[in-house]
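The following block was generated as part of the benchmark described in Methods. Ligand: iron/sulfur cluster.
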Amino acid sequence: MIPSLFRGHWYLSHYSPICALMQIPGHIDPVPLPAKVTPREDGRVDLIGLSVAEIRDVLVEAGLDEKQGKLRSKQLFHWMYHRGIDDFSIMTDMSKTLRPWLAERFVIGRPEIVEAHLSEDGTRKWLLRSADKQDYEMVFIPDEDRGTLCISSQVGCTLNCRFCHTGTMRLVRNLTPGEIVGQVMLARDALGEWPKGVMDFADEEEAENTKEYNQAYKSDGRLLTNIVLMGMGEPLYNFDNVRDAMKVVMDGAGLALSRRRITLSTSGVVPMIARAGDEISVNLAISLHAVNKETRDEIVPLNRKYSIEELLQACADYPGSSNSRRITFEYVMLKDKNDSDEDARELVNLLRQYDLPAKVNLIPFNPWPGSAYECSTPERIKAFSKIVFDAGISAPVRTPRGRDIMAACGQLKSASEKKSRAELDRLAEEKQAALG
Ligand code: SAH
Ligand code: SF4
């Protein structure tokens, strides 16, 4: 039987499961390529995104015995996800012969940075590129008491919500667990947030060579505290990879982010909501955006498949939601479309009818060239918010962040597609400075 790690995924459909087990030609002592890892041109296998068990499997496939595989996978997991190290040569608890052996066959990769922007309000935005040249976005939003990383789950999105720019992109593919976890790794790199700890050394020379990584431990006061799956794509249409990636991110031996600090946003893929609760158990956000069938059918076309009633029932049944762990309902404010007093009252009715522990997030619409809608006026948004708030439901208006760097969903990618080669070269030079 083919181990699960090697089963084909649709986005690698040109690799049959059998193909995935084939060896990479032209490489010394090649390692079988796990199907959920995007192939690299140099033939090495990227370990980012793999769990301890999966790392063990690839090590054993590459020739280590079971006992070694188990030990080394645990060490690698710690180096990769706890320490943020991407260089085998400084893994001082591995033998000196093992380190080059690993480096010949594996990499601990990061997505390539195509663009990096820093907004005047502190928001950072990156346009990233996968090993097979697909571009996707990531945004970091610092606040006084937290720092939220907004990550993508797909390149583009199949769902075509009418107000969303990502939905207009033609090219869509699921991101791999490595490409999802890679976003968190890259953000930690850019924010300089890896702990540095004291390790045991084989000899003095080694201690000297790795001095930089061996200073006093510092893991407190982190900037990156929360993750939201609100970038490009519909996370519940890439369920397995999102789940596997979040499990790695939550693993206590690595990045160790609490599930209470992770929020998954869905436009309403009803059949997957219960599974998200059971298997990932993170906070849930629902892109509701409208309270009657006619309007929601228009702006969130998935509503034609799964009704508002089915969606709210799935929310009522969501495991783990409670008054202390409320479900967020996102509501984009579109002028004369979904923003009347009547809409606000109906929103309150629905949340009460399903007895939902809810908070409402009112999002001012962020227009993009060619969009069919306008943002509601500030007075309208205020009046809408007051009705919901007076009914005892929290309804803050989300402050737009990073507008000067086009930090809204899907905007950076399409802007970059219009840029000239010269502009891209200049941006590539600037990116190091912005990251510093
Ligand atoms: N696909 C998922 C998650 C990504 S979208 C979802 O739809 O929930 C993240 C959030 O950004 C959603 O609430 C989405 O409706 C909102 N959004 C998309 N385009 C927007 C725009 N132009 N202005 C304001 N909010 C937008
Ligand atoms: Fe996709 Fe979400 Fe955009 Fe809708 S709002 S098109 S589901 S990314």
